Structures are given as C-alpha cells and as structure tokens.
Amino acid sequence: MLGMTETKNDLDAASGARRVEWIRSRMPLLAQAREDFERTRPFEGHRIGMSLHVEPKTAVLVETLAAGGAEIAGTGNHGSTQDDVVAYLNDLEVDGRRLTIFGRRDDDLVAHHANVGRVLDAQPSILLDNGGDLAAGIVARGGTASILGGTEETTSGGDRLRTELAGLVPFPVIVINDSLLKQIGENKHAVGQSVAESFMRITNLMVPGTRFVVVGYGWCGRGVAHYLRSLGGKVAVAEIDELKAFEAALDGFRVSTAVDLAPWADVIITATGRPGVVGAEVFDRMHDGAILANCGHFPWEIDVPALLASSVSSRAVDEAIDRIELPDGRHLVLLAQGRMFNLAGRSPKGNSIQSMDLGFLLQTLSLERIALAAASGSLPAGAQPVPDDIERTIARRMLTAMSASA
Amino acid sequence: MLGMTETKNDLDAASGARRVEWIRSRMPLLAQAREDFERTRPFEGHRIGMSLHVEPKTAVLVETLAAGGAEIAGTGNHGSTQDDVVAYLNDLEVDGRRLTIFGRRDDDLVAHHANVGRVLDAQPSILLDNGGDLAAGIVARGGTASILGGTEETTSGGDRLRTELAGLVPFPVIVINDSLLKQIGENKHAVGQSVAESFMRITNLMVPGTRFVVVGYGWCGRGVAHYLRSLGGKVAVAEIDELKAFEAALDGFRVSTAVDLAPWADVIITATGRPGVVGAEVFDRMHDGAILANCGHFPWEIDVPALLASSVSSRAVDEAIDRIELPDGRHLVLLAQGRMFNLAGRSPKGNSIQSMDLGFLLQTLSLERIALAAASGSLPAGAQPVPDDIERTIARRMLTAMSASA
Amino acid sequence: MLGMTETKNDLDAASGARRVEWIRSRMPLLAQAREDFERTRPFEGHRIGMSLHVEPKTAVLVETLAAGGAEIAGTGNHGSTQDDVVAYLNDLEVDGRRLTIFGRRDDDLVAHHANVGRVLDAQPSILLDNGGDLAAGIVARGGTASILGGTEETTSGGDRLRTELAGLVPFPVIVINDSLLKQIGENKHAVGQSVAESFMRITNLMVPGTRFVVVGYGWCGRGVAHYLRSLGGKVAVAEIDELKAFEAALDGFRVSTAVDLAPWADVIITATGRPGVVGAEVFDRMHDGAILANCGHFPWEIDVPALLASSVSSRAVDEAIDRIELPDGRHLVLLAQGRMFNLAGRSPKGNSIQSMDLGFLLQTLSLERIALAAASGSLPAGAQPVPDDIERTIARRMLTAMSASA
Amino acid sequence: MLGMTETKNDLDAASGARRVEWIRSRMPLLAQAREDFERTRPFEGHRIGMSLHVEPKTAVLVETLAAGGAEIAGTGNHGSTQDDVVAYLNDLEVDGRRLTIFGRRDDDLVAHHANVGRVLDAQPSILLDNGGDLAAGIVARGGTASILGGTEETTSGGDRLRTELAGLVPFPVIVINDSLLKQIGENKHAVGQSVAESFMRITNLMVPGTRFVVVGYGWCGRGVAHYLRSLGGKVAVAEIDELKAFEAALDGFRVSTAVDLAPWADVIITATGRPGVVGAEVFDRMHDGAILANCGHFPWEIDVPALLASSVSSRAVDEAIDRIELPDGRHLVLLAQGRMFNLAGRSPKGNSIQSMDLGFLLQTLSLERIALAAASGSLPAGAQPVPDDIERTIARRMLTAMSASA
C-alpha cells in the first residue's frame, strides 16, 4: 500500500512538473525576479507561511520565493487544491531545502483548518495570506511578535485587517488586490477575456447577435461587457450605482436594472461581488431557454437556492450546464451552478498566464519589501497599499515583457 | 465478451444521446424543419447515402432527415468519427426504421473505404456527399442511373464534379459550401469565433497586446483577423492577392508578406487553404518563443516536416502545444502539430451550434429540393449552387431564430 | 465691366489654385501617374471630352490627364460646379495648351445642356462620361465614328449603355463605379467616414449612446453602420433583402424594418439608392425630436414632399438643419433637406482625399487603356468592367502609398 | 455712426439668438434645471459674477441661472468671446432684469482685465470663476467678506486656490473640473469625438490605416486614442508615466516614447497638458509630410517656436493647415498653429452639446448649493470637490436624458 501511494505521488509530481513547465516559460516577470533573487537572496533566513490557491501558476510563484532563500510552509484554499501541483512542490528541493505544502483537493473544512494550523506551527516570520486566515490565527495564538510582516491577496482580507483585526496586528501587511495594476490587468482584462472564452468553450454558442446582460460595471463587469461586445454580442449593463451606470451609458451600452433587462436577455452574467443580485423577480421575467452565469468570486450572486426551490426539475445537459424546468413551462439554463463559470467546465484555465505573472510579481516584490523593511522598520503596522515604486517598477517590466513598443 | 461489447455500446449510446441533447435544444432551424417534415415527408421512399463528419451536431441533421421519411445509410470521415454518436444513431428507431451508420474512430483507411462501399451497397437514391467520394464511387460502379441527385458539402468536392467527374454525373448535385450564407455565417463568423476561443483555451495566453499575423484574408482569414483585433490583439495580415490585401489595409490592418512580418509576430495563424504558405524562410525569422498555428482545413499550410527536419528536438509541453528547439538556440511553439487547432486540445467544440444549424439547414432544404425536383426534372445535371430561394428562406428563418429585431 | 470680371476671375483662379494645393500634395497615386505620363504621353494627339463634378480633387485628375498629352474640354455637373476651380483650370497652361472647362455654379439646366453640347463641339476622341450624357449626345449627333472609347463614372450610366444605348455605341466604355476597389475604398470606407464626420460636424451631437437606424446594408450602408457603431453609437439596420439582413445580423446589428425601428430611433440615415424608403409610416412612429438624414446619391430616399405636406411648419434652425413641426405636437429634424448630408453644412469636404486619389486613378488608367487599345482594337465595344490588371495595379500602388506594411 | 452700431448690434443679437436655439433644444438637463428654478428661485437676491468662455452653449447656462433669480455680470475669456452671443445676452430681459456681459472678441489683454474689474465692480455675491481670476481679484480688493462662495471651472484655478490663495479665501469654492462625470463625459468622450471629427473635417484625410501617435494617456488621451482606433486608425500611445503606459498597453495600443514613435507616425496629437512634450528631437525624426496637432488646453505642447526657428519657410495651405519646410528637404504639416485644433478650421463646434449640458449642470447645481449653503454655513471654506449627491443626481438625470435603458 505504501508503495502504491509513493507511486501515485511520483506520478502526480511528474504530471505537476509537466503542467508547470509551459506556464513557467510564459512568466517572464517571475523569471527575472528569480534571477535577481538568486543573487540578492532577500528571504535568506526567513520562513514564509503561505495560504493561497494551489495551481500550476502558484507553483512558479513558490519557486521564485524559494530562489530568494525562503523556506516555505504553505496550504491551498479549501476545495480547489490541485494535488499534482502539491506533489510537485513537495518533491522540489531548492538549495538543499524542501518545501512543505499541506492539503489535498478532498480535504474537508476540518482538515483544511488543520493545515492552516500546521503552517503556523512551522513558525513563519513572513505571511503570504489570503482572506486574513493566517493573520487571525497568529493573533489568536498570541504569536504576532515573531512576524515581520506579510501580504494579503484579497480585498476582503484587507477589510478584515482594518476592522476585526484593527490594532491587533503589529506588523505591516501589504494588500495586493487594491493595486491599480491588478484591477486593470487582472480584473478588467484577464477576467473579461476569460469570461468570453469560457462562455464559448462551455456553451458552444454563437456570440454575435446574442443578447448579454452584464450585472455590475466594476472592473470585472467593465471587462466582461467590453469583451463580449467586441465579439459581436449585443450587451446591456445592469448597474444600480449612478456613477458607474453613467460611465456604462457613455461607453455606449444600454443601461438599466436587471429586472428591466431580464425579458430581453439571452444570457445574464453577474459580476458584482454582492449576494442575491439576480433573484426571483429576474427569473420570472426571463424568456424560455435564457442562460444564467456568474463570474464573481462568491457563488451567491445568482440566488440558486430560490431558483431550484421554484423549479419542477433540474438536470445536467452537458458539462457545467444545468437545465432548470419551471412550473410555467419555461426552462432556464444555469452554468456551473452559479459558481465562477470561468473556472468551470472541461479544461478551464482561468486568468491568462501573463496576468498572473503580473499579479504574482506584485506578491513577490511586496514580500521582498516586507523582508527588507523589517530591519529598518520603515513600513507602518497594519494593512497598507502596494508601495507606489513597486507598482511603477512592475508596470515598466510588464511593458518590456509585452514588447509594448512594437 | 459479447456481453461486454453490448454493454460498451449501450454506454456509448447513452453518452451520445446526452451530448446530442444540449446541441439539439439550440438548433431551432433544424427543429422547425423536422416539424415540417413530419407533415410533408419529402423523403418518403428514399434512401439517403451519407458521407459526413460524425459528431453530435451531425446527429441532429440525421434525425431531421429521418423525420422526413428518409432511410439513411452513412459513414463518417476518416479519423474523426465520434463512436458514441455512431452508437446513439444506430440505436435510434424512427417510424420503426433503424438508421445505419458505419465506421469507428480507429478505422484505418482500408476500413474507411469499405464503409463508403457499404453505403453504396445500401443502394441509396439520394447522396449527401463529402469530397465527391460517393459520386465517384457510384460512377465507378456504373450505378448512376439509380440516383436522383444529391448534395456536396465541400468546395473541393464541387471542383471534382466539374473536372474529374464532368459529364459523368447525370444527376443534379447542389454544392453547399459556396453559399454566401455559409461563407458569412460559418467561414467568417464561426471560424473567427472558434479560433479566438481555441487560442485562449489551449495556450491560456493574454490576447491584448499580443502580435498576431493572420496569413490569408479570405472569408476565414477576415473572421480570424477581426475577432483577434476585437479582443485587443495587434493584428497584421499577410496576403499575396492584391485585392484582398487592399481590403485588409482599408480595414485598418498592417499588411505585408508572412516573411516580412515574421520577426514581429508573436503568433502566426494560417488560413489560406494552400500548402506550405509558412515555411523555412518564415521560421528562420521568427523570434524565440513565437507560436505557429493553422486553422485551414488541411494540415499542410505550415510546412511542419521542414520545421521538424531543421529542429534539434521537439516535445509536447501541454495538450496540443509542442515546443520545437532550433539549432540556433531559439525555440518555436507549434499548436496541434499544424492541424486545425480550433478542433484540438481538451474539449474542442468546433463551430458554434447555431452556425451548424444554419449549415445543416442548407443541406436539409437542398436535399428536399433534390427529392422534389426528381419528379419534375426541374434541376439540371451536375454541380450547381444552392438555389437562391433556399438561401433567402434560410436567411429569413435565421433572422427569426436570432430574434434579430430585438 | 470687363476689367472687373477679369479681376474676379483672377481672384477665383488664385483661390482655386490654393485649394488645389493641399489636395494635390495628398494624392500620391495621381502624382505617380502624372510623372509616368510625362514620359509616356499616352494621350498625345487626343482630346478628352469630360463631364464630371468639378471640385478641387477633380482638378488634380484633370492636371494628370493633361500631363499625359491630352487636350481637355469639359463641363461640371448641374448645380455643383465650383467656380474658382473652373477659373483655375481655365487659367492653366500645360505644354503651351490651355484647358477648356465650361460651366458655372449658377447655370440653369439649359445652360448646362449647352455646356455638354460645347464639349461635344470640341470634337473629343475620348469620353470621360457621367451618367451617359456624352455618349447619348454623340449617338444623337451620329458622331460615334470619331470616338475611340471612354469611361463612365456611374453605375446608372453603365446601365444606360446596356439598355437605352445598347448596340448604338461602337466603342468601348469602361464603367468605373462597379470596381471592387471603389466599392470598398469609396462606398464603404470613405462614405462611412464622411457620414460619421458630417453627423458630428453639422449637429454637434454626442454619438455614444445615440440610437441610429441605418436604412440599407449595401456597401455604403455597411460603412455607415460600422463607423457609427465604432464611435459608440447604438446602431440598428433596416434592410429588406434577406441576405444582406442576415449579414447585418451576424455582424451583431439589430435588424428589422424602418417602420419597426422608427420609434426607437434617435436618428435615421438612408443609404439605399431607392426612392421613398422612409415615408409617412416611418414619420408617424418617430419620437419627438428625432432626426432624418440621407447619404444616398439622389435626394429621394426620404419622402420630403410628404413630410412637408403633413407638417404645420418648417424652418432652418442651423446650417443644414431644419425643424419640422407636426400637427400632433411632435417635431422632426431634417438634415440637408434630404439631400446628401455628407456634402452639406459649413465646410463639407466630401470623400477623403485618398479615396478620390484611388477613384481617379481608376479613371486615369482606364482612359490610358482606352487610348492604348485604340490602335490594337483589343477592347470590345460597349460597357465593360475595369480590366483586372488595372485593379491589381492600383491595389498594389495604394498599399505602397498607405505604407501598409508599417 | 451710432445708428450703424445699433444696427450692427441688432444683427448680432439676432444671429446669436438663432445659433442658441438649436443648442438649447438639445440641452435637456439645463432645460429641466430652468424649469425647477422658475419655481424655487435659488438665486433670488444674488448677483453672480461670471468669467467663462462665451459661446452659444454658455448662453443657455446664463439663461438658466437667470431663471433662478440671479442677476448676472460676466465677461468672456480673452480672445475667444463670440460677439453675437454677447449681443444676444445683453439684449435679454429676464423678469424685467437685464444681464450684463462685458467683452468683445477683439479686446486686448488690458481691455480684458478691465472687464474682469467691471465684473467685480458689480459687487457679485457669488462667483462663477475660471482660472481663479475673480477670486484673486476679490482678494486683492479686500472684498472677500461680501462673497458667499462660488465655483471654479478649471483644475488650474483649483490649484491656485490651494496654493497662491490658500487661507485667503474665506468662502467655499466648488471645483468643477475634477468631477468624475466631467472627466468621463467631457475629457474622454467629448474630446475624443471632437478630435476625431476635427481631424477629418480639417484635413479631409482618410483615417483607416493612418498611423497616429497620441501623446499622453490621461482622460483626453484615452478618448482620442480609442476614437481614432475605432475609426480604423493605427494608433500608438506615447506616455512617460508607467501606470498609464501600462493601461495603454493592456488596452492593446503600441506604447513607447514620442521620440521612438516619431519615424512611424503619420500624425502626432498631443494631449498631455504639459509644455514642450513634442520638440526638436521629435521633429527631426518625423517623415516627410507628417502632421502635428494639439488638443490640449494650452498651445505649448508642441514647441512651435522651435519648429519655426528651424524651418526654411512656412505658409498656410488650407484653413488651419500650415506647411513648414525644413532645411533637409522634408516638410511637416502643423494644424491650427499648435493651438487646440478641435476648435479650429471652418465651422468648429467644439465639445458635443450634450457633454456641455452635463458640464453646465455641474456648474448650475454647484452654484445652487453655494447659494443654499450660505444660510446654513454647511460648506467649508476653500476649494472643494463637487458634492457626491450632486454628482449622483446629475448621473441619474443624464441616464434619463439619454434614454439609456433603450
């Protein structure tokens, strides 16, 4: 049995390694950082405790940090960990050190929390956090004194630091997600592209002439609306914030509420970050065969429980496509059960490699800044934005990587 | 053993049935034709011999013809037959009749030709042909007298009828592919969409700012160039025909030869229908890491043998992605080994469902016309275009199906 | 009095010369032809009789023909002649020869016909015709024997040669307007650009979010619809031909009839070439303040007489903008009284200089072909398309002139 | 003589009235404000001192304020005052009160400053300021105590209040130009549209395929770049700020410095707000016949003195088009002598009517807020942004005015 497990792990590690290779070859920003780090070794003597979605692109980030001298103890998110990437990383030996990544896709919540605990047990000095879990854990343990600082991937983690954990975190935490580079490069362009690709990939439907309603005109919604219109779709925007609605109207979109636009829509895509923005009132007015999809982070924007509760029956008709029969004879189509459909279906790739190269360089240089600032104490405690000089450095490197001048 | 085979077939048929369902629910043009045919029964007493790529969309075409009273004996193309769809169709009973579809994905060329023979053995009166194989076979057998007429899917089949088979085919054959509706709906828009989707799906690369060279500005090339530019790509067109080059320049594209544009290209996509349009002279001038892909029907547009012959090594780095190392230290990336990359990789869906609904209605109404004209002798012998009234009927129905006025 | 007239003419000629200079400096195709002609002198010994709209761009065409050795006797169209350009041309001396251009803007129809007669009196051997007036005149005079051949600018002139004058014209006439280059370069792109520019210039209204209905999806309509949508307009297409309507729908436009779209429209623009396509049924359904404009050649597409007949009052509210009050309290706005509004208002420039450079090179090389073919008799009699080699030559030169490869 | 002058004034007033009518009929936001003001009379008992560019759109603003009960004493900008609009306004009688607008187009700077003095002499209680001239004047006079507050149209006026006049202005001043609505509606969309229109109107050149370099990717530059690309132009962006350069690259533009892009450019358009961004180094590298134009507020972005100093000769070849001959045989073309070319040439209309309706409603409601807040003292002293509730109110009204939901 042990033998078999080992074999399984070896296979996993090999699969992970192969999947990481193409990705790594298209991440020039991290490649340059790795090359720099091999000389400068900013993390020498530090252990980074990491909590982050584990997929092949993440592996390239981890390799980069390790090349900077970091020891790494990490765990993935609950439910999305890719086992072969974990196996690959645990197999990796950098300068004679081994990385330690906990977690498997099938872990239940109890197991996941245990993994977070194990990361903290490893006594990290720097945190790469996600949703504030590591920061909250270290506060609960009374162990904040040993932490130099860290980064936080999400906006909601940043909010948590500023409210629930306000005053309790004596070290600096750079919040990555509010970076303008990330908003433009990832939320607008990468999500826009990924939603367009995923709609075509999953449904195999024609885009030109199809009537889309994009709910929300934040950075993601802007991207989704523009990409779908570029492909020939007829796009309307549902937005309740007047200023964003105004921007959408000036951008040439039809603008109204989701309820008003519902009868017209062939497809409704939510991108608001808010719960229940599409519910019974919308379902009631959609035409037979219309499609519902969500690309927001949480699976709550479409009120799926209400939809199913009011339905006669529901069944999968293709990968990530459910057909919901309603009592009045209409049916609606739900993609990915209301979860992020741009990460669903066969062979979802998520955000483009280059957009993650950008996002992870934000992580990398912010973590380097934390390590360097520890000595000088030059960063204030608590949540703070990515330093302007880091944003500008990355923007310049990205322009070079894109050969933007040609 | 027999039991197991039966079980396998049953599973296949169930899988095929499931995959066909979503497709069928999004083919309103064929649905309407089927409903009409159930009343009018234009194929009553006829057997249609079919040679056509067998995938789920094809199944809906076959069901439609069967609903019109046709007996059907068919075979797929060599190498692309989807076994579960064959199983599903062979299981189908329409009005007490069973369909007969020959062929499996693993058939070698000998087996494939045997299948074509079996279709002819079934003594069809109407042919749904592909590349002129059935027409040539029936001529070789001296059996043309029993044929009322038929359709031909491809342009090259039409050419064959006008040259090699000129004067030998005493029955009318309507050539589907030259239809303006098909050029616009399928070659321009469906291929354009599918190429954009497949590039993103297979490579996971960012489109905005990426430098694409589209080789060829026929209907397919036009679609590919416009769709990629719409997504933010920088697109140049390589075209040797002056008139098409002029059109591309007026459409705002940079226009030159593939050789001239090679050093600038991040990605070269061929869409010309001609062999060897991208060869050694282009490979030599491409930058390190540049990508080659083809969306033309035949896998000969990129001179892959020359590329491999001049390479140091080649290996797959991801699904449908090969990395080719060159002696001068550069590497190039080849998608789908030079075959249609829009049908490659994990989960390729091909042209959009609605574009095939359109294309197959062209087939359906042309076959109906063949059956109806047989009595009156109102169609001339030999290759001929889709009758204008059929084009107009379909255009009108498509506008309705798209709810184009909303 | 004579003195004053001379002074007036001199001023006119100077004004004409100045206006022609900028134009000439941006017509590289005609510049190259002129340079070639100075060596090859294809029109040596020939007199070209010309009937064509006289404006600064036309002057550059005339200079080019003169540089090829032609004597020229010409007249403008009725009502659009620009007097300073006539003065400039009549002042011009090329190789010691003077050009003779008849006509003034204020000429009435009688005077205009007299001018056509004077052109024929000058005994041309080659005709540069417009609407078939010169060809019909020469037939009426029984003077066709002295004509080597000619060109015809318009489609309707070509039609006239093929019907009314069929069999009566023993010399070749190359019909310019059916050229694919002209359809793309002029009808689609130049008219599209000019309509967009003129709408903004005349009305000073915002384009993004404005609802346009483009009536007709021929080459002009395609251009107009695409250019307005590109600028952020919401664009619908009214088209009764099923095939063009299909193309518009696939291009992502809302498609219906003008009557259906009327209540939605902020602006209706006609581009069909047909009389009365927008009439009472449309006027009745338009909203208060909606705008009517036409860009088709003839001022008959909007039924202006019916509109005025049903109105309470009408008055100009700005240059080329009339406000029409209706009995039900609504008002409509009519641009340029239903004439081509892209040639109306203050400072209309018409089609872009380069598009006319292209169109006039078609004229120039076709006239050269007529002169050269006269000796060999290699062109058939009657109306015929621009020879393919001329189209390809011009396409190549235009690509060079545009520096299309950069 | 007096009689003649009166006659001239009468003619002017009539011309002004006519030009204002079309504009007023397309300013629904001001129309609604006027209707509201006729009931609420927020300016009853107040005199507004105004310094603002006087053209027909401004007249509608003035009428609106007058309808709210304001007495108005105003002056235009130096050099741009439209005399017929002044005449029209001075003729206007609202509720028995006459407006007083000083200034004529031909006023020299001394005369202009005298007019500013006359506005202050009129003892206004509220200021509608432009560049801080009125605020600085009132401070210099020691008369600030009589001022309730005001608005400032420009960003540079806002800066002046925060620096030179900091602490000296005891009343609130709402700075209009920083409003997000104004940035989007005016700087991006209205300037973008106006630049595209003006380039076509003035030069009569073809946009598709033309190579534009837009210098600056602020709100104006973004608009200009997007509008020109939409029309088929090849557009590159020159931007030295890394973050904006990054955004431009992600938006799919070629991005570099003006010097690098100079040889490629057919047209360079400056939109930076900074002096000398295009100078000798750029001129030296531009190709023969390339075009220079500026749309930034000040006429200093192109270093015209340096260009002329290094030239052999310069002359006008058409309205707003100068041809500059250089010693090396090249010539460059300069539009509008480096001033805002979107306000130059024959018949310039400037920003779209609706965008100014929006901008002037910002003025109107901000001035109303100043008047209402005077009693309660609810606004702090000094420069401040447009209150959020006003922005949202206007956004909602604009959506309604655009019928954005259709």
TrEMBL record, chains A, B, C, D:
Give start-end ranges for the coiled-coil region(s). Answer: none
Listed cofactors:
NAD(+)
**Keyword Protein transport, does the record have it?**
no
Q: Which SUPFAM superfamilies does this chain map to?
A: Formate/glycerate dehydrogenase catalytic domain-like, NAD(P)-binding Rossmann-fold domains
Keyword flag NAD: yes
The record's annotation in Pfam families points to: AdoHcyase (PF05221), AdoHcyase_NAD (PF00670)
Q: Which family does it belong to?
A: Belongs to the adenosylhomocysteinase family.
Q: What is this protein called?
A: Adenosylhomocysteinase
What species is this protein from?
Subtercola boreus
